[in-house]
Structure prediction request, 99 residues.
Amino acid sequence: MVAKPTAKRRKWFVERCEKGCEMCGGKFPNIKNNGLRFSHIISKKSGGNDAQANCLVLCPSCALSFDLVVKPAIYKALTEISKGKVPKSWEDGEGRIDI
Prediction:
C-alpha cells in the first residue's frame, strides 16, 4: 500500500528521496520526489506505523516487487524455516548468495 508521509515525516521522506530508490537506486528527476513512493514494510492495516524503521522509499517497480515478491518470500521463509523468528544474520544484511 502506498502512503503519503505526514507533515511531521515529510522532511526525512524528502531527504531519502534525494538518494533514490532504496532497492534499485533509481530516481526520476523530472517527477516530484524523484518519482518515489513512501511504502510501509509492515502495513498500517497489519499494525505497522509511520516510523522510519518501518518505511522504505521505493520506485513504482520496486514497490510492486517488494509487495508481490519479496514480502511473500520472506513470510514463507519465516513461517516454514524459522518458525516466525528473524535470523540474527539479517541484522547486518548477511545471507546474500552470488550467482
User: Anything to note?
Assistant: The mean pLDDT is 77. The beta strands are 2-3, 37-40, 55-58.
